[in-house]
Description:
Oligomer: single chain
Amino acid sequence: MKKIIERVALLLVMILATGCSHFGHYPVNAPLEKHNPEYGYIAQNMGPVGNAEELLLILTFSGGGTRAAAFSYGVLEELKATEIALGGKKRRLSDEADIISGVSGGSFTAAYFGLFGDRIFEDFEQRFLKKDIQSALSSSVFLNPVNWFRLSSPLFDRSDLAAEYYDENVFDRKTFGHMLERKGPMVLINATDMSLGARFTFHQTVFNAICSDLSRFSVARACAASSAVPGLLTPLTLKNYAGRCGFVMPPFIQEPSQSYRVRAMRETLSSVMDSEKKKYFHLIDGGVADNLGLRAIEESIESAGSAWTTLKFSGREKVRKVVFVVVNAETKAEPEWDRIEWIPPFSAMLSSYSTIAIVRYNRETMAILQESFDRWAQDIRTGRCPPGQVSTEPGSCGDIEFYLADVRFENLEDKAEADYLGKLPTAFRLSGEEVDRLKAAARKLLVESDGFRKFLKNLDSGASSKEAPR
Protein backbone atom coordinates (compact mmCIF):
# COMPACT_ATOMS: atom_id res chain seq x y z
CA MET A 1 0.00 0.00 0.00
CA LYS A 2 2.83 2.33 0.89
CA LYS A 3 4.45 1.82 -2.50
CA ILE A 4 1.16 2.60 -4.24
CA ILE A 5 0.80 5.86 -2.29
CA GLU A 6 4.39 6.83 -3.12
CA ARG A 7 3.79 6.20 -6.82
CA VAL A 8 0.58 8.24 -6.79
CA ALA A 9 2.36 11.08 -4.99
CA LEU A 10 5.21 11.00 -7.49
CA LEU A 11 2.72 11.06 -10.35
CA LEU A 12 0.96 14.10 -8.84
CA VAL A 13 4.29 15.91 -8.51
CA MET A 14 5.06 15.15 -12.15
CA ILE A 15 1.64 16.42 -13.19
CA LEU A 16 2.06 19.68 -11.25
CA ALA A 17 5.52 20.11 -12.77
CA THR A 18 3.97 20.38 -16.21
CA GLY A 19 2.62 23.80 -15.25
CA CYS A 20 -0.32 24.77 -17.51
CA SER A 21 -3.88 24.49 -16.20
CA HIS A 22 -4.61 22.00 -18.97
CA PHE A 23 -1.25 20.27 -18.35
CA GLY A 24 -0.03 21.00 -21.88
CA HIS A 25 0.20 23.87 -24.38
CA TYR A 26 1.96 24.04 -27.73
CA PRO A 27 4.85 26.59 -27.96
CA VAL A 28 3.46 29.77 -29.49
CA ASN A 29 5.32 31.19 -32.51
CA ALA A 30 6.99 34.54 -31.80
CA PRO A 31 5.47 37.79 -33.12
CA LEU A 32 7.34 40.11 -35.49
CA GLU A 33 7.48 43.63 -34.13
CA LYS A 34 8.06 45.46 -37.42
CA HIS A 35 8.05 44.22 -40.99
CA ASN A 36 11.36 44.58 -42.82
CA PRO A 37 11.49 42.97 -46.31
CA GLU A 38 15.25 42.44 -45.94
CA TYR A 39 15.06 40.72 -42.55
CA GLY A 40 15.42 37.10 -41.65
CA TYR A 41 15.22 33.75 -43.37
CA ILE A 42 14.96 34.80 -47.03
CA ALA A 43 16.91 33.85 -50.17
CA GLN A 44 18.92 37.09 -50.25
CA ASN A 45 20.40 36.28 -46.84
CA MET A 46 21.28 32.66 -47.64
CA GLY A 47 23.65 30.82 -49.97
CA PRO A 48 26.78 28.67 -49.60
CA VAL A 49 30.01 30.66 -49.51
CA GLY A 50 31.91 30.45 -52.80
CA ASN A 51 29.24 28.66 -54.81
CA ALA A 52 29.24 29.30 -58.55
CA GLU A 53 27.23 32.30 -59.71
CA GLU A 54 26.49 30.70 -63.08
CA LEU A 55 24.85 27.56 -61.61
CA LEU A 56 21.52 27.36 -59.79
CA LEU A 57 20.98 23.90 -58.26
CA ILE A 58 17.49 23.20 -56.91
CA LEU A 59 16.66 19.99 -55.05
CA THR A 60 13.17 18.85 -54.06
CA PHE A 61 12.66 15.97 -51.62
CA SER A 62 9.22 14.35 -51.58
CA GLY A 63 7.17 12.96 -48.74
CA GLY A 64 7.08 9.31 -47.73
CA GLY A 65 8.44 8.82 -44.18
CA THR A 66 11.89 7.30 -43.67
CA ARG A 67 11.64 5.86 -47.18
CA ALA A 68 11.66 9.39 -48.63
CA ALA A 69 14.31 10.62 -46.17
CA ALA A 70 16.69 7.77 -47.11
CA PHE A 71 16.02 8.16 -50.84
CA SER A 72 16.81 11.88 -50.61
CA TYR A 73 19.91 11.17 -48.56
CA GLY A 74 21.22 8.87 -51.29
CA VAL A 75 20.95 11.74 -53.78
CA LEU A 76 22.94 13.99 -51.44
CA GLU A 77 25.61 11.30 -51.17
CA GLU A 78 25.97 11.16 -54.95
CA LEU A 79 26.09 14.95 -55.24
CA LYS A 80 28.84 14.97 -52.62
CA ALA A 81 30.77 12.39 -54.66
CA THR A 82 30.43 14.40 -57.89
CA GLU A 83 33.03 17.09 -58.55
CA ILE A 84 32.63 19.84 -61.12
CA ALA A 85 34.87 22.68 -62.23
CA LEU A 86 33.34 26.13 -62.60
CA GLY A 87 35.19 29.41 -62.76
CA GLY A 88 38.49 27.59 -62.47
CA LYS A 89 37.50 26.01 -59.15
CA LYS A 90 36.66 22.41 -58.34
CA ARG A 91 33.59 21.98 -56.19
CA ARG A 92 31.44 19.11 -55.00
CA LEU A 93 27.90 19.40 -56.30
CA SER A 94 26.53 19.03 -52.77
CA ASP A 95 28.26 22.34 -51.98
CA GLU A 96 26.45 23.97 -54.90
CA ALA A 97 22.92 23.28 -53.68
CA ASP A 98 21.11 26.63 -53.59
CA ILE A 99 17.54 25.62 -52.72
CA ILE A 100 16.18 22.46 -51.11
CA SER A 101 12.42 22.09 -50.84
CA GLY A 102 11.25 19.26 -48.59
CA VAL A 103 7.95 17.63 -47.74
CA SER A 104 7.16 15.28 -44.85
CA GLY A 105 9.92 12.63 -44.69
CA GLY A 106 12.03 14.54 -47.22
CA SER A 107 11.90 17.64 -45.02
CA PHE A 108 14.02 15.91 -42.35
CA THR A 109 16.89 15.27 -44.78
CA ALA A 110 16.61 18.79 -46.20
CA ALA A 111 16.53 20.45 -42.78
CA TYR A 112 19.41 18.38 -41.36
CA PHE A 113 21.62 19.25 -44.32
CA GLY A 114 20.60 22.91 -44.07
CA LEU A 115 21.51 23.04 -40.38
CA PHE A 116 24.62 20.87 -40.23
CA GLY A 117 26.05 20.55 -43.75
CA ASP A 118 28.54 17.68 -44.12
CA ARG A 119 27.74 16.43 -40.64
CA ILE A 120 24.73 14.75 -42.26
CA PHE A 121 27.12 12.20 -43.81
CA GLU A 122 28.51 11.35 -40.36
CA ASP A 123 25.54 10.79 -38.09
CA PHE A 124 22.17 11.19 -39.86
CA GLU A 125 21.84 7.47 -40.52
CA GLN A 126 22.34 6.61 -36.85
CA ARG A 127 20.27 9.49 -35.49
CA PHE A 128 17.34 9.17 -37.88
CA LEU A 129 17.40 6.90 -40.95
CA LYS A 130 18.32 3.66 -39.21
CA LYS A 131 16.59 4.43 -35.94
CA ASP A 132 13.11 3.20 -35.03
CA ILE A 133 11.63 6.68 -34.70
CA GLN A 134 8.09 5.36 -34.71
CA SER A 135 8.61 3.20 -31.62
CA ALA A 136 10.43 6.01 -29.85
CA LEU A 137 7.48 8.34 -30.48
CA SER A 138 5.02 5.70 -29.27
CA SER A 139 7.03 5.20 -26.10
CA SER A 140 7.02 8.92 -25.33
CA VAL A 141 3.21 8.89 -25.51
CA PHE A 142 2.27 5.61 -23.84
CA LEU A 143 5.09 5.00 -21.37
CA ASN A 144 5.46 8.48 -19.89
CA PRO A 145 2.62 9.21 -17.40
CA VAL A 146 3.24 12.96 -17.59
CA ASN A 147 2.33 12.95 -21.27
CA TRP A 148 -0.99 11.23 -20.56
CA PHE A 149 -2.10 14.37 -18.75
CA ARG A 150 -0.48 16.78 -21.17
CA LEU A 151 -2.44 15.13 -23.97
CA SER A 152 -5.68 15.74 -22.07
CA SER A 153 -5.29 19.40 -22.98
CA PRO A 154 -7.07 20.73 -26.11
CA LEU A 155 -3.94 22.83 -26.71
CA PHE A 156 -1.46 19.96 -26.96
CA ASP A 157 -1.50 16.73 -28.94
CA ARG A 158 0.55 13.95 -30.54
CA SER A 159 2.36 16.08 -33.11
CA ASP A 160 3.51 18.43 -30.35
CA LEU A 161 5.11 15.45 -28.62
CA ALA A 162 6.68 14.40 -31.92
CA ALA A 163 8.10 17.90 -32.38
CA GLU A 164 9.65 17.75 -28.90
CA TYR A 165 11.24 14.40 -29.71
CA TYR A 166 12.70 15.67 -33.00
CA ASP A 167 13.92 18.83 -31.27
CA GLU A 168 15.81 16.90 -28.62
CA ASN A 169 17.00 13.85 -30.54
CA VAL A 170 17.41 14.95 -34.17
CA PHE A 171 17.85 18.71 -34.57
CA ASP A 172 19.67 19.68 -31.34
CA ARG A 173 17.06 22.36 -30.53
CA LYS A 174 18.04 24.44 -33.55
CA THR A 175 15.87 27.19 -35.07
CA PHE A 176 15.62 28.76 -38.50
CA GLY A 177 17.85 31.47 -37.07
CA HIS A 178 20.62 28.90 -36.72
CA MET A 179 20.10 27.84 -40.34
CA LEU A 180 20.31 31.51 -41.33
CA GLU A 181 23.60 31.92 -39.44
CA ARG A 182 25.15 28.99 -41.29
CA LYS A 183 24.40 30.62 -44.70
CA GLY A 184 23.82 27.29 -46.38
CA PRO A 185 21.21 26.45 -49.00
CA MET A 186 17.72 27.92 -48.73
CA VAL A 187 15.70 25.09 -47.17
CA LEU A 188 11.94 25.27 -47.69
CA ILE A 189 9.86 23.05 -45.43
CA ASN A 190 6.30 22.64 -46.67
CA ALA A 191 3.11 21.86 -44.75
CA THR A 192 -0.59 22.27 -45.59
CA ASP A 193 -3.11 24.63 -44.01
CA MET A 194 -5.96 22.36 -42.90
CA SER A 195 -8.83 24.76 -43.64
CA LEU A 196 -7.52 26.53 -46.76
CA GLY A 197 -6.00 23.40 -48.30
CA ALA A 198 -3.13 25.66 -49.34
CA ARG A 199 0.59 24.97 -49.17
CA PHE A 200 2.24 26.61 -46.15
CA THR A 201 5.99 27.12 -46.60
CA PHE A 202 8.27 27.99 -43.69
CA HIS A 203 9.88 31.11 -45.15
CA GLN A 204 10.07 34.61 -43.71
CA THR A 205 8.05 36.07 -46.60
CA VAL A 206 5.15 33.87 -45.50
CA PHE A 207 5.76 34.72 -41.85
CA ASN A 208 5.83 38.43 -42.75
CA ALA A 209 2.19 38.13 -43.83
CA ILE A 210 1.25 36.74 -40.40
CA CYS A 211 3.64 39.12 -38.58
CA SER A 212 5.67 36.33 -37.02
CA ASP A 213 9.44 35.82 -36.68
CA LEU A 214 10.56 32.58 -38.34
CA SER A 215 14.15 33.00 -37.08
CA ARG A 216 12.95 32.06 -33.61
CA PHE A 217 10.90 29.09 -34.78
CA SER A 218 11.98 25.48 -34.15
CA VAL A 219 13.11 23.54 -37.23
CA ALA A 220 11.87 20.37 -35.54
CA ARG A 221 8.39 21.83 -35.19
CA ALA A 222 8.31 22.76 -38.89
CA CYS A 223 9.28 19.18 -39.84
CA ALA A 224 6.65 17.81 -37.46
CA ALA A 225 4.02 19.96 -39.19
CA SER A 226 5.24 18.86 -42.62
CA SER A 227 4.91 15.18 -41.62
CA ALA A 228 1.65 15.39 -39.62
CA VAL A 229 -0.17 12.68 -41.59
CA PRO A 230 -3.92 13.02 -40.97
CA GLY A 231 -5.25 10.22 -38.78
CA LEU A 232 -1.86 9.15 -37.45
CA LEU A 233 -0.70 12.50 -36.15
CA THR A 234 -2.46 15.75 -35.31
CA PRO A 235 -2.29 19.29 -36.75
CA LEU A 236 0.28 21.72 -35.39
CA THR A 237 -0.96 25.17 -34.49
CA LEU A 238 0.48 28.62 -35.23
CA LYS A 239 -0.92 31.94 -34.08
CA ASN A 240 -1.76 34.62 -36.67
CA TYR A 241 -0.56 38.13 -35.74
CA ALA A 242 -1.41 39.64 -39.16
CA GLY A 243 -2.01 43.40 -39.17
CA ARG A 244 0.32 44.19 -36.26
CA CYS A 245 3.72 44.69 -37.94
CA GLY A 246 3.04 47.01 -40.88
CA PHE A 247 3.10 44.35 -43.60
CA VAL A 248 1.03 45.14 -46.70
CA MET A 249 0.23 42.92 -49.67
CA PRO A 250 2.96 43.21 -52.38
CA PRO A 251 2.01 45.42 -55.38
CA PHE A 252 2.42 42.58 -57.91
CA ILE A 253 -0.19 40.58 -55.98
CA GLN A 254 -2.60 43.50 -55.76
CA GLU A 255 -2.46 44.35 -59.47
CA PRO A 256 -5.06 42.81 -61.82
CA SER A 257 -3.76 39.63 -63.42
CA GLN A 258 -4.91 37.23 -66.12
CA SER A 259 -3.12 34.43 -64.32
CA TYR A 260 -5.46 32.12 -62.43
CA ARG A 261 -2.54 31.09 -60.22
CA VAL A 262 -1.78 34.70 -59.20
CA ARG A 263 -5.47 35.39 -58.52
CA ALA A 264 -5.67 32.26 -56.36
CA MET A 265 -2.55 33.34 -54.45
CA ARG A 266 -4.14 36.76 -53.88
CA GLU A 267 -7.27 35.13 -52.50
CA THR A 268 -5.25 32.89 -50.17
CA LEU A 269 -3.07 35.77 -48.97
CA SER A 270 -6.14 37.90 -48.28
CA SER A 271 -7.52 35.10 -46.11
CA VAL A 272 -4.20 34.72 -44.31
CA MET A 273 -3.99 38.44 -43.54
CA ASP A 274 -7.44 38.58 -41.96
CA SER A 275 -6.44 37.73 -38.39
CA GLU A 276 -9.95 38.36 -37.11
CA LYS A 277 -11.42 35.55 -39.18
CA LYS A 278 -8.28 33.42 -39.24
CA LYS A 279 -6.71 33.63 -35.81
CA TYR A 280 -4.80 30.37 -36.06
CA PHE A 281 -3.20 28.04 -38.59
CA HIS A 282 -3.65 24.32 -38.10
CA LEU A 283 -0.99 22.64 -40.23
CA ILE A 284 -0.96 19.07 -41.53
CA ASP A 285 1.23 16.93 -43.80
CA GLY A 286 2.70 18.88 -46.72
CA GLY A 287 1.93 16.04 -49.12
CA VAL A 288 -1.76 16.97 -49.03
CA ALA A 289 -1.00 20.18 -50.99
CA ASP A 290 2.17 19.15 -52.86
CA ASN A 291 4.00 15.90 -52.20
CA LEU A 292 7.00 16.86 -54.37
CA GLY A 293 7.82 20.24 -52.87
CA LEU A 294 7.95 21.68 -56.39
CA ARG A 295 4.98 24.01 -56.17
CA ALA A 296 6.83 26.25 -53.73
CA ILE A 297 9.40 26.93 -56.48
CA GLU A 298 6.96 27.14 -59.39
CA GLU A 299 4.55 29.46 -57.61
CA SER A 300 7.26 31.80 -56.33
CA ILE A 301 8.41 32.34 -59.94
CA GLU A 302 4.88 32.89 -61.21
CA SER A 303 4.00 35.28 -58.39
CA ALA A 304 7.11 37.37 -59.10
CA GLY A 305 5.93 37.82 -62.69
CA SER A 306 8.80 36.12 -64.54
CA ALA A 307 11.87 33.96 -64.09
CA TRP A 308 14.09 36.98 -64.78
CA THR A 309 12.43 39.00 -62.02
CA THR A 310 12.96 36.08 -59.65
CA LEU A 311 16.68 35.88 -60.49
CA LYS A 312 17.13 39.63 -60.05
CA PHE A 313 15.27 39.63 -56.74
CA SER A 314 17.56 36.90 -55.41
CA GLY A 315 20.76 38.41 -56.86
CA ARG A 316 21.36 35.57 -59.33
CA GLU A 317 21.45 37.47 -62.63
CA LYS A 318 24.60 35.63 -63.79
CA VAL A 319 23.01 32.17 -63.78
CA ARG A 320 23.60 30.15 -66.98
CA LYS A 321 22.50 26.68 -65.93
CA VAL A 322 19.47 25.83 -63.78
CA VAL A 323 19.33 22.22 -62.57
CA PHE A 324 16.27 20.68 -60.91
CA VAL A 325 16.80 17.37 -59.10
CA VAL A 326 13.34 16.06 -58.18
CA VAL A 327 13.49 13.15 -55.72
CA ASN A 328 10.14 11.35 -55.78
CA ALA A 329 9.55 8.49 -53.32
CA GLU A 330 5.85 8.12 -54.07
CA THR A 331 4.04 4.91 -53.17
CA LYS A 332 3.54 2.33 -55.91
CA ALA A 333 -0.13 1.75 -56.69
CA GLU A 334 -1.33 -1.79 -55.94
CA PRO A 335 -2.45 -3.57 -59.17
CA GLU A 336 -3.59 -6.81 -57.48
CA TRP A 337 -7.26 -5.87 -57.57
CA ASP A 338 -7.10 -5.58 -61.36
CA ARG A 339 -6.92 -9.39 -61.42
CA ILE A 340 -9.69 -10.12 -58.89
CA GLU A 341 -13.42 -10.23 -59.56
CA TRP A 342 -14.41 -9.52 -55.95
CA ILE A 343 -15.47 -6.01 -55.01
CA PRO A 344 -12.53 -4.34 -53.19
CA PRO A 345 -13.10 -3.63 -49.46
CA PHE A 346 -13.19 -0.15 -47.98
CA SER A 347 -9.55 -0.35 -46.82
CA ALA A 348 -8.36 -1.06 -50.37
CA MET A 349 -10.51 1.75 -51.74
CA LEU A 350 -9.19 4.23 -49.16
CA SER A 351 -5.56 3.27 -49.83
CA SER A 352 -6.07 3.57 -53.58
CA TYR A 353 -7.81 6.94 -53.19
CA SER A 354 -4.89 8.59 -51.39
CA THR A 355 -2.27 7.05 -53.70
CA ILE A 356 -4.12 8.06 -56.88
CA ALA A 357 -4.53 11.65 -55.67
CA ILE A 358 -0.83 12.03 -54.89
CA VAL A 359 0.45 10.29 -58.03
CA ARG A 360 -1.84 12.22 -60.37
CA TYR A 361 -0.94 15.53 -58.75
CA ASN A 362 2.76 14.67 -58.91
CA ARG A 363 2.47 14.01 -62.65
CA GLU A 364 0.70 17.32 -63.20
CA THR A 365 3.31 19.20 -61.17
CA MET A 366 6.16 17.64 -63.18
CA ALA A 367 4.40 18.46 -66.45
CA ILE A 368 4.00 22.10 -65.43
CA LEU A 369 7.70 22.25 -64.55
CA GLN A 370 8.88 20.84 -67.89
CA GLU A 371 6.47 23.01 -69.87
CA SER A 372 7.73 26.10 -68.03
CA PHE A 373 11.40 25.68 -68.95
CA ASP A 374 11.18 27.24 -72.43
CA ARG A 375 9.06 30.13 -71.15
CA TRP A 376 11.40 30.79 -68.24
CA ALA A 377 14.44 30.68 -70.55
CA GLN A 378 12.78 33.22 -72.84
CA ASP A 379 11.95 35.42 -69.84
CA ILE A 380 15.60 35.45 -68.83
CA ARG A 381 16.89 36.14 -72.34
CA THR A 382 14.42 39.00 -72.82
CA GLY A 383 15.34 40.51 -69.48
CA ARG A 384 19.09 40.07 -69.75
CA CYS A 385 19.67 40.96 -73.41
CA PRO A 386 19.30 44.35 -75.13
CA PRO A 387 16.29 44.53 -77.48
CA GLY A 388 17.00 42.73 -80.73
CA GLN A 389 20.40 41.45 -79.52
CA VAL A 390 19.58 38.03 -78.10
CA SER A 391 22.45 35.59 -78.44
CA THR A 392 22.59 32.05 -77.09
CA GLU A 393 26.35 31.62 -77.51
CA PRO A 394 28.22 30.34 -74.41
CA GLY A 395 28.73 33.21 -71.99
CA SER A 396 26.36 35.54 -73.87
CA CYS A 397 23.31 37.28 -72.41
CA GLY A 398 21.02 34.59 -73.78
CA ASP A 399 23.07 31.66 -72.50
CA ILE A 400 20.60 29.92 -70.20
CA GLU A 401 19.59 26.25 -70.05
CA PHE A 402 17.35 24.21 -67.77
CA TYR A 403 17.93 20.57 -66.80
CA LEU A 404 15.70 18.08 -64.99
CA ALA A 405 16.86 14.96 -63.14
CA ASP A 406 13.78 12.87 -62.38
CA VAL A 407 14.75 10.49 -59.55
CA ARG A 408 11.94 8.00 -58.89
CA PHE A 409 11.63 4.27 -58.36
CA GLU A 410 9.91 3.43 -61.63
CA ASN A 411 12.93 4.71 -63.60
CA LEU A 412 15.05 1.82 -62.31
CA GLU A 413 15.93 -0.77 -64.95
CA ASP A 414 15.52 -3.47 -62.32
CA LYS A 415 11.72 -3.51 -62.14
CA ALA A 416 11.68 -6.00 -59.28
CA GLU A 417 13.77 -3.60 -57.18
CA ALA A 418 11.57 -0.68 -58.21
CA ASP A 419 8.49 -2.64 -57.15
CA TYR A 420 10.11 -3.58 -53.83
CA LEU A 421 11.14 -0.01 -52.98
CA GLY A 422 7.79 1.43 -54.02
CA LYS A 423 6.00 -0.90 -51.61
CA LEU A 424 8.12 -0.10 -48.56
CA PRO A 425 6.04 1.47 -45.77
CA THR A 426 6.00 5.23 -45.39
CA ALA A 427 6.33 5.02 -41.60
CA PHE A 428 9.34 6.32 -39.67
CA ARG A 429 10.81 2.85 -39.27
CA LEU A 430 12.88 0.86 -41.77
CA SER A 431 15.58 -1.78 -41.43
CA GLY A 432 19.21 -0.94 -42.12
CA GLU A 433 19.11 -3.06 -45.27
CA GLU A 434 16.05 -1.21 -46.57
CA VAL A 435 17.72 2.14 -45.98
CA ASP A 436 20.86 0.99 -47.79
CA ARG A 437 18.87 -0.23 -50.80
CA LEU A 438 17.04 3.10 -51.00
CA LYS A 439 20.32 5.04 -50.90
CA ALA A 440 21.91 2.85 -53.57
CA ALA A 441 18.89 3.19 -55.85
CA ALA A 442 18.87 6.98 -55.49
CA ARG A 443 22.54 7.24 -56.41
CA LYS A 444 22.11 4.98 -59.42
CA LEU A 445 19.03 6.85 -60.63
CA LEU A 446 20.72 10.24 -60.37
CA VAL A 447 23.85 9.13 -62.22
CA GLU A 448 21.79 7.54 -65.00
CA SER A 449 19.29 10.39 -65.33
CA ASP A 450 19.33 11.86 -68.83
CA GLY A 451 19.01 15.41 -67.50
CA PHE A 452 21.85 15.00 -65.01
CA ARG A 453 24.16 13.38 -67.57
CA LYS A 454 23.40 16.12 -70.09
CA PHE A 455 24.17 18.78 -67.48
CA LEU A 456 27.56 17.25 -66.63
CA LYS A 457 28.41 16.81 -70.29
CA ASN A 458 27.50 20.40 -71.14
CA LEU A 459 29.67 21.74 -68.37
CA ASP A 460 32.59 20.58 -70.53
CA SER A 461 34.78 20.88 -67.49
CA GLY A 462 35.88 17.37 -66.66
CA ALA A 463 33.22 16.65 -64.08
CA SER A 464 34.00 13.42 -62.29
CA SER A 465 32.36 11.16 -59.74
CA LYS A 466 34.58 9.99 -56.91
CA GLU A 467 34.01 6.75 -55.12
CA ALA A 468 32.07 7.02 -51.89
CA PRO A 469 30.43 4.45 -49.63
CA ARG A 470 27.36 3.04 -51.32
